[in-house]
Write a structure and sequence with these properties.
The complex is a heterotrimer of chains A (229), B (236) and C (224).
Chain A (H helix, E strand, L loop, with lengths): L1 H25 L13 H28 L2 H33 L7 H22 L5 H29 L15 H47 L2
Helix pairs in contact in A: 1-6, 2-3, 2-5, 2-6, 3-4, 3-6, 4-5
Chain B lengths: L12 E10 L2 E11 L4 E5 L6 H8 L7 E6 L12 E4 L11 H11 L6 H9 L15 H13 L5 E5 L7 H16 L3 E5 L3 H4 L5 E6 L2 E7 L3 H6 L7
Parallel strand pairs in B: 3-7, 3-8, 5-6, 6-7
Antiparallel strand pairs in B: 1-2, 1-4, 8-9
Chain C lengths: L2 H19 L1 H20 L4 H25 L3 H4 L3 H7 L4 H31 L7 H26 L5 H29 L5 H26 L3
The chains are: A mainly alpha (229), B alpha/beta (236), C mainly alpha (224).
Chain lengths: 229, 236, 224
Amino acid sequence: MRKLALISIPVTVVLLGVTSYLALEVAPTEQTMGDVQRIFYYHVPSGWVAFLCFFINFVASVVYLWKRSAASDAMAAAAAEVGVVFCTVLLITGPLWARPVWGIWWTWDARLTTTLVLWLIYVSYLVLRRFAAGGQTQVLAAAFAIFGFVDVPIVYMSIRWFRTQHPSPVIGGGQGSGLDPAMARVFLANLAAFTLLGILFLVLRYKLQVKEQALELAHAEAALKGGSQ
Amino acid sequence: MQGISDPHPPPVIVLDNLVKFFGRFAALRGISASFAPGRLYVVLGDNGAGKSTLLRIVAGLTEPSQGSLTLLGARRVRDVAHRFGYMGHAPLLYDELSGRENLRYFAGLYGIHNDEAGREAMGMVGLDPDLSRRVGQYSQGMRQRLSLARAVLHHPELMLLDEPFSNVDVHSARAMAAVLGQLRDQGKTIFVVTHQAALMEAVADEWVHMAAGQIVNREPVLRGAAAADSGLRSAR
Amino acid sequence: MSMLEVTRATLVKDLRMEWRSRDAINSMLFFALLVVVIFSFAFNPTAEESRLIAGGLIWVAFLFAAVVALNQTWARELRNQVLDAWRVSPAPANALFLAKTLGNFLFVVALEVLMTPLFVVFYELRSVGPVWQLAVVALLGTWALVVNGTFFAALSIRTRSREIMLPLILFPISIPALLGMVDATTSILTGEASPDFWIRMLAVYDIVFTAVCLLLFETVLNAE
């Protein structure tokens, strides 16, 4: 764990420094939105990492229910936590951008609302993990993770319908169709750096969880040996 | 009746290095044992010795942390669920229903849809099948008797009883112990976890002593004809 | 062990016990009544406005009341640890789940039938759209709340502070269903839009989550 951290933490920090420089200084300023558009280089990669983490959480939960391996439970727990962190960044950077550009902090648009609901679902997953008693935590959490993941497409569909049906107050952002090549390069660099950061967090958190499990087991084994004489 | 004919019947329960952790507490510390059929085992030990935990694992209510269990020849307890009966620490009955209604419902869970099984079981434990009182108004002794009736309703060949005499008056307890003796005489295997060894003295075949999550001693009871016979298994 | 037979027997047993004690239905009814009264103090709309907000008010009231009932789903099985007797028996776990879900469904529907007249009176409600569509939305929506609620109640009985746990895990998952119920109800009451999409969405939600519940219930029941 230490060796991995020694190499990957500096690499990720340097990379993030470089990509931040690219995002804040090198990338051309957007014509209509101005500098505030630069938040996009953080916002979208955070979202991508969050969704990746939630997907990993789902897969790990299914594997846990199937194989009952402690490692997959550790992965599920780590992925949910890291996912919630990046999802929080996503939800904070969004309104920061929206206020100057749209003139409002928040709008009940499909993507925003789905993200918020997603965040709520995974926070409740973490609450459940915290409150579940003893040895049952893993099974209960894994079952709930499946409910959460199955719910996401339904949430998206229903909110999209909810919003397309009513006129929305949003002044169209209208970006994305034609991203300037210079912007695209910076964006991809940031995407790569954030993915690396996400994976780093995930792996470190996972290793920590595995160590915690090992510690619990070691304590239990010690109790087993200690009392048997 | 049986038992004598086959000198080495297959064991009812085989425990292989069972370990159970509750957090950092080791409730069972590696139990390996096997138990022959047709005998009445009385499991004794202090609070926290792991008696109830062991019984719950055997009944399939709790998963062991390590080790394995073979129950009636099956690896999965659910596969033989209809062949054993379990009586828990609590009565495992609905207070709002009468005794008959309780038994009728639980019989249904075992696929028994006639009323006869319930009446018979209530008769066996010395309760009036026509009692219309709800279980909530039963005395503790009646409750435990009804709970025993619930556990034997489907004629299981193995019975696991956790503290069947707790809070029961001496009269009821003696009557229940006698019923257990009769059931054993019919060839059933019975495990009784209890603090009150004296109650079981007349009917027990083997004392199983537990301490600190392990079986520390197993002590066959030499009784009456069996003692004269100097055989371990009593001739019934 | 036929699954249907056990489901039926369990449902009948639960209804009989509820009839004798009337724990859930009484507390639920009173709670829902309180919610209606408090809402009518908080919002004092004209007949026209009430059509627009009634969908939300009604369903939030029903949701809160349903949580009170759902929290009691497993209370009887935990008293005297009867659930252990269930778990050692060979009866299929899903029969228990279906019986509990059907029981809760009947309770909550009964509650809705009793509460609706109060809402109509307090808010001078009159539907512009066809009323039978409201019944369809109510049945589908109630099942959506109750099927997950029964499952999550089984999850939350294994946690600390179980009473508060249930809404914490049920509400986020139920958001699309709630959205569907509220919007469909408003569409029908105002008669301005078709509730067809929502009715289909609720049906899909019901089918998907009923399947997930049945798939996972045995695992959760035996988690110990």
